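Q: Joint fold for the lines below.
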Amino acid sequence: MVESFPMKKVIDEQGNLVTASDRDLIDQELVQTAYYHMYRIRTFDKKAKSLQRQGRIGTYPPFEGQEAAQVGSALALGEDDWLFPTYRDHGAMLTFGANMTRTFLYWNGRLEGCIPPDGKRIFPAAVPIATQILHATGASWAEKRKGTKNIAIAYFGDGATSEGDFHEGLNFASVFQTPTIFFNQNNGYAISVPFERQMNSSTIAQKGVAYEIPSVRVDGNDFFAVFFEMQKAVNRARSGKGPTLIEAVTWRTGAHTTADDPTKYRPEGLGQDVVDPILRFERFMKNEGFWNDDFAVNIHKEVENEIEAAVKEMESYPKANVEDLFDHVFAELPNQLVNQKDSYLQLLRGK
Amino acid sequence: MVESFPMKKVIDEQGNLVTASDRDLIDQELVQTAYYHMYRIRTFDKKAKSLQRQGRIGTYPPFEGQEAAQVGSALALGEDDWLFPTYRDHGAMLTFGANMTRTFLYWNGRLEGCIPPDGKRIFPAAVPIATQILHATGASWAEKRKGTKNIAIAYFGDGATSEGDFHEGLNFASVFQTPTIFFNQNNGYAISVPFERQMNSSTIAQKGVAYEIPSVRVDGNDFFAVFFEMQKAVNRARSGKGPTLIEAVTWRTGAHTTADDPTKYRPEGLGQDVVDPILRFERFMKNEGFWNDDFAVNIHKEVENEIEAAVKEMESYPKANVEDLFDHVFAELPNQLVNQKDSYLQLLRGK
Amino acid sequence: MTSNITETKIATKSITLIQAINDGMKTVLERDDTTLILGEDVGKNGGVFRATDGLQEIFGDDRVIDTPLSESGIIGTSIGLAVNGFKPIAEIQFMGFIYPAYDQIMTHASRIRMRTMGRFSVPMVIRAPFGAGVRAPEIHSDSAEALFTHMPGIKVVCPATPYDAKGLLISAVEDPDPVLYMEPMHNYRSFREEVPIDYYTVEIGKGIKRTEGEDVTLITWGAMVPLVEKVANQAKENGISCEVIDLRTLYPIDEGLIAESVKKTGRAVIIHEAPRTGGLGNDIVSIINDTSFLYLKAPIERVTGFDVPVPFSSLESHYLPTPDRILKGIEKVTNF
Amino acid sequence: MTSNITETKIATKSITLIQAINDGMKTVLERDDTTLILGEDVGKNGGVFRATDGLQEIFGDDRVIDTPLSESGIIGTSIGLAVNGFKPIAEIQFMGFIYPAYDQIMTHASRIRMRTMGRFSVPMVIRAPFGAGVRAPEIHSDSAEALFTHMPGIKVVCPATPYDAKGLLISAVEDPDPVLYMEPMHNYRSFREEVPIDYYTVEIGKGIKRTEGEDVTLITWGAMVPLVEKVANQAKENGISCEVIDLRTLYPIDEGLIAESVKKTGRAVIIHEAPRTGGLGNDIVSIINDTSFLYLKAPIERVTGFDVPVPFSSLESHYLPTPDRILKGIEKVTNF
Ligand SMILES: Cc1ncc(C[n+]2csc(CCOP(=O)(O)OP(=O)(O)O)c2C)c(N)n1
Ligand SMILES: Cc1ncc(C[n+]2csc(CCOP(=O)(O)OP(=O)(O)O)c2C)c(N)n1
Ligand SMILES: [Mg+2]
Ligand SMILES: [Mg+2]
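A: Joint structure:
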């Protein structure tokens, strides 16, 4: 099956173009945008880990190592598309326009963290694995019904492919030919369970065969490979040609979450040969004359400032409002909840 | 995909061997056994429909048209194998050794209908679609753990492939290489929904690719094709080579159940070119010199007697026992149930 | 059944409960382009009970959609549709087949408004026939309301009459939040009632007094309503005057109506099909405890399904509350 | 916590609740070859909470099995294994992830014995950490006991102490029917207790009096137990003597213990984490109504989670019963 789904690569580990003619597809703007976002979300991720260690936010699932996959996919989306992420896809969300302060708030246990900027169609991260795959199918089906050219992307991991909702989502998308992109980040592990014990198939891409959904396997640490294959899938979806399954093969550099200890289950040294996607991209930039120290210094500073400001804003955010516990369950509070709310607020005030 | 999974056929619609050399695989005993069972379950099915019309049993889902698939699969099983059927697989169950009286009792709303003969490993029919696929996987996994050569077969329809449990079951079987046969009867419809709206893939066999489970597509109305492919799958499973997915392409001649009206959804004339599997088998018998009027007359009489006796036994069965409502929920009745049972029995006696 | 129609002249027709459901859907599909019907066999076949009969012919297979056999798929994609501008009316063929979709309803449909502080919401209706007594096969007869009344973020309604069926269906579609609409299949065709041919609503959250009485309050819903009304008549002959309350909405429950009645009668019997332990009857006991404790002249009785799976059809008449069991419950609270 | 250990000398060790669960599994895996552990991350990783830590090293990856990420798959295949001679102890990583498996539990695990009149049965244990208060992400903090106490054919246990954790785990494995074993993750490591190192059982169906009292009965389970004990002490300082009952088994409930206590005190407060409507608290109100009506000096109080999804961690302390809310409940029933 690996032969049927060869891994698409645009640049190799040394940052060299695999096919010289691909050079024509790449311009300065794309390169700088890609680098900026990868650097930005990497820095965000580092900050989040450090905040967690200091007890300033809660448990956090780092995405280090998956930046090319997340940025490469998110940058291929259009303004009005829908994004259905998991808990590990804050990189993609930030790239697509999520608010950074709110992203920190999410990991600080705040409802406000789920609200995208006005007009942005970013769903809150799905915690129950694979469930969002159906939402993306439904939301993109809605776009098709409305006659727009908008699409939806569902992010999910290798472990997610074992859930029934993965299967039901792809089948619905196939039957109704919805404009959906099923974007899998195969990062080798579902918590402690390696790919080879999650499934007995050699690729995730081949799972598309079950639904006759066009599928492709890409090097998920190669920004260009991800971005170009995403563009194809996006175009296909927009032009009414239905869903695509993309397997982006990548690697989770760190722990599953800050509460996880990968040394319990990951053989020492495993994955150390994986070249960091940002390093690989920098090599490419240097090889192909895109690197520019000033540019790098500038965006490093810009990102640092942005993140510091976001942390500050997060930490000076008004305390969570008790009323929010009750007020958003329904559009209008039913009597039962009115009573529960009133008597609790009264108790609180009584102190 | 149809090319990757060509439909296996041993005899054609006229009862002629497709490949002359297959003749060597066929002997009188096999032919007579197959004919006997197909004729027997066909007659059972007719009787059940007529009993339902007369109000002597409840709603009934006929399997007419699927006899070659059910008998061809069940005859390939061994004494100690496990069978996990749906509501439409009473033909396979009877062939494998289920009790006919109890089968009628099942459709008469009696718990007793779920109990297989001693030693027979036949599960009660699964009503929630696709759920039994996981049970077959688990039970055969248990056999593998015990080190036996026994296997399990899960029967399911085309509609069942849309459920998450289908997917989860095949994935587990693949990961743990359980000796399971996933036997699909693709009879063209799930109630009113045709195959083409149930999925957008051209075959069910191709769904095995997702799990790297060997898959095969057979003419489900060709007893020999089903039987020989089943034998291969059974042998593979017994010898530790894991699961197989078999798509038996067949046709539901009648209604989904006796409560269903297929004229609401099935285009007139559709399926009329399907040659009845028993007729086809008779043609083969006549073509190849296996037909014998005495044999036919004898088994027809035998089957008639058996069925009449079973109906009689079913109808003279002692009335359902109220205590059975309570007594089998747990091995031992918890207090709550003791109280509920006692007070209800008291009320009944009080009258 | 008492009619809910006021004395003003409005055009009505005499229809069954299932026809009223069909009519309700037709009414909303005509009026609101964003409404859709999705489910197994809802299109060409018009539903296994004919609830959607004729609707695909009128509205096309683009709005009355036969889906794959996939309950989580139906609910999960409906969530996506609902979040993005549509109002799906999703059918679960029988309530016993809603369990595969439980996760989508529990972790998403019911939570998305809260999680996003209202930024996203899931205006959808889930229709599900429920209940025993029609000699259906296994799993076809479950009454699973308590699994949803316990789920914050979804409303649960359960009409017992054709009038309420149409009115509550329209209200459910109008509601900005997910509504589980439970259909007592035992009553699908058991009687007719005059039902307005136009658009009207029955307010979610409001029960109704079906019979006025003084001695005992009987609280029930769904297929039990006509049965309980009949038993109330029997009890009357024995000199016991029963007030019959049809809850109609199971979440949020009309606590006021219950309290008002129990304060008057001082006695209550709750009747439902679902198993006793964990059944909604317990919530009603609590409501009475909370609101009417000092008025109670006897412990509250519950007449319910037993703590056993709905049995095979040969035993289902023993599983379901019978007139005898209900009468005994009434006697118990009156003779206390 | 009061210790359950009798005065005879038995070897014990001081361990936490999670260690007791681990020890319980080790004990049964040693003793009974047919026991298996299955679940996500239970093997190499030893469980995300380390409940199965070290067990794969001892018993091999053939008995302590990392499964695919597939809850319906875990439960469904466990049913097949259980029917065919094994005793699976299946872990659901958090109770909020049990919903995808709800169908398999509801329509199969709990019904197979009845459907086959005992010919097939499903002796299996489903372990699930539950409850809020540990600042976990969304869906990780649900208390879903009422979805299972309402399900005929499955028992539900919920230990609050290390001693009960081990003893109930062993009982659950010994039980011939499916048992849902709920683990209060808030108490996993919150205190230690002397626990026998050998095999012993705690009877399923029996609650325990944690504190003797005269004025009010406080009924609770799981992570609420230590909290309620603390509140009972506070109340004592205010002159109110509380009896604290830890139910330990949620189905079948120890009705006798509840009745005996409420008959003595005449007042009851029920405390649980799950949402109020549909919560198990309502069943307990019914039990008291049925058994102790004439002894009641005040309406029963329930102090519970609100009718809202377990909120994000910044609000969970407001969601959970607090000492103040419990105290207020106690005052309400005493001042009635
Ligand atoms: C239904 C469900 N079951 C279990 C979990 C617990 N859990 C959280 S993340 C995870 C692993 C997911 O692996 P994968 O899909 O590969 O995504 P990754 O974490 O590697 O990005 C598990 C088991 C969950 N969130 N939801
Ligand atoms: C989970 C579930 N959903 C819905 C149903 C109702 N139902 C019964 S049979 C059926 C169609 C099954 O089609 P298929 O799998 O092709 O089997 P066939 O009936 O054709 O043998 C449906 C939808 C059910 N039994 N279980
Ligand atoms: Mg992964
Ligand atoms: Mg079919």
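Q: Anything notable?
A: Residues A 88, 127-129, 157-160, 187, 189-191, 252, 256; D 40, 69, 71, 93, 97, 100 surround thiamine diphosphate (ligand 1) (CB under 6 Å). Chain A touches chain B at residues 1, 162-168, 171, 174-175, 177, 197-202, 206-207, 209-212 (CB under 8 Å).
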